[in-house]
Design goal:
The structure is a homodimer of 354-residue chains. With 354 residues, chain A is of the alpha/beta class. Helix content of chain A is 44%, strand content 15%. In chain A, the strands form three sheets. Chain A has a seven-stranded mixed sheet, sandwiched between helices. In chain A, strands 10-11-13-12 form a four-stranded antiparallel sheet, covered by helices on one side. The first copy, chain A, has a two-stranded antiparallel ribbon with strand order 5-6. In chain A, helix 10 packs parallel to helix 12 and helix 10 packs antiparallel against helix 13. The longest helix of chain A has 21 residues. The termini of chain A are far apart. Chains A and B meet through helix 2, helix 3, helix 9 and helix 12 of A and helix 2, helix 3, helix 9 and helix 12 of B.
Amino acid sequence: MSEPVMHHRTAEFKGIFARAQAKLAQVFFVDEVIILSASGSAAFEAGMLAAVPAKAKVLAINAGKFGERWLLLAQKYGYEVIEIKIPWGKTVDFKVLEDTLKSEPDIKAVMTTHSETSTGVLHDVKKIAKTVKQELPDALVLVDAVSSLAAAELRPKEWGLDMVSAGSQKGLMMPPGLAFVYMSQRAWASKTNLKPSFYLDIRKERISQQKNTTAYTSPVNMIYALDAALDIIIAEGIENLWQKRALYTEAILQSAELLGCSRFAQRVSPAVAALRAPEGIKAADIVAEFAKRGLRIAGGQDHVKEFLFRPAVLGYGDKYDVITVVAVLEEVLRELGLDIPYAKGVAKAMQVLG
Amino acid sequence: MSEPVMHHRTAEFKGIFARAQAKLAQVFFVDEVIILSASGSAAFEAGMLAAVPAKAKVLAINAGKFGERWLLLAQKYGYEVIEIKIPWGKTVDFKVLEDTLKSEPDIKAVMTTHSETSTGVLHDVKKIAKTVKQELPDALVLVDAVSSLAAAELRPKEWGLDMVSAGSQKGLMMPPGLAFVYMSQRAWASKTNLKPSFYLDIRKERISQQKNTTAYTSPVNMIYALDAALDIIIAEGIENLWQKRALYTEAILQSAELLGCSRFAQRVSPAVAALRAPEGIKAADIVAEFAKRGLRIAGGQDHVKEFLFRPAVLGYGDKYDVITVVAVLEEVLRELGLDIPYAKGVAKAMQVLG
């Protein structure tokens, strides 16, 4: 009654839900996306359980923290997991991928991240999918796009991806709390011998969502936010957004290189600028100095903790935020003992940004 | 960087998370509650998978839409499910419960809803737990408290409940999007032969949450809202809130009875006033007439759709909202053909509210 929140089983809410769904599909370059009330990680689990038969052999391309997460997920659920382990910061060697697919012809699905946030690498999922189609045409390609959606070029249908998972809190400029799953027609058709799932059962969700509602209570306020965020993205143009994000990240990387840092990613993700700290400076100190100035940047995880730091300009960030990041980086490195002339990095950033 | 949302791996956020966790435990009358980014339904699944061994025999007390949901959940995951099916609107017959527990001594867990939203019944989970302890001391008692938390008396530790699931969108006056799980010490200790779960794995979550963080991306904005909502509830006094909710629901029920409706629940849940429409009037018409006046009330589900409607005053609702509901009900019933003197129901509501 006096609830400040619109009830989720009303015609008004269904209208908003339908609109948000349609716009989300547009941004995904697909026809249909399932929306879950959960963090982005839940989407990969939901998609995998909905399409890959129990005990199937799956290939995990593990190139960082998130690649490892999906490998652990698959192991936990009893899939037979083959791993291609890639050093952090690197991309997959396509010869190795081809050979693995040739030598394990009963692989039913290949798992990969698109933008691997832990390393700043954008994996070439288009080429990965093409390679899989060539060697094992029936294997499904499962892609974690949590940090690449609305940040890097992503065309699941055109590229032949079978499952793409994403979340609300990265490129969509929203708070965390929504998870998204796209599945290809053949992934939807792959429905025999699945492991059970209940809350994350996107096959049940699909039946509800095709009627513009959700199987469980809808995260109404988040759906309003999604609807609004998608309007901004569509008005800007999704392709423009991809270019802008790539330019911003490149500007940070080139400026930082001039200041003594080095880029970590072999193939750069527009979602995050992964940087190796200059010799003799600890990444944790850079992160701490940024924090003192009120700016939050991510440090490195696991074995790259010592030297990696990862500034990112996502959400509503514009080119002046990029300049700010570079200005702060200059100041911080000076504070930590480097001798850097004023605006050396900022000049580079401005030049790259144009 | 320019994110409008606080990053979830920061000391500031950890402080807020720790505070919200502690206050949530206080409102639950327990020591520890796990918080998930998901709808309330996910909490029951998470709790069940975290404590009940695979293939175990479980007893489902099915007294409505939600009781049925947990039965289906258990079946889907391959548990051996014994059912006590109760007519909608009724409570469990304790003789039947005792007999069932005696005749199926290998039952490992008993599932029940506390407030069954579909029928407006408050199930006596205290007595259910006592009965289970008497007959099968080792069986776990799993309780869905999604709509009873902060609405009806609930003392999981004192009553010996082993798992209690809840969500953010009912008594806590918040938008949907957070799920909560309490587990008893012996439920946490029951960790052999569990079915796998990943995103909803509260044993993994617990390790993170004991360090004031979450295993996956934290729903930061929802945690702020939780922190604020709990302050309001604790300031009001949780026991006062229970009394107030019960009084509001009773006021609606008694007024509606005077207007020709009848109460549906054998034992009334303070969370919702389940009412049978007067003879000759369709519940759907009452719901539609409320909607025309800008007030949303729930209709009936499944086989009670024809005659059940369910107004509720939760969230920030106060006694004047109760009076409004009754005034609208009067007007609506008059519109639908009943001859009701002005304020007949409202006078009763005011008398009950005092």
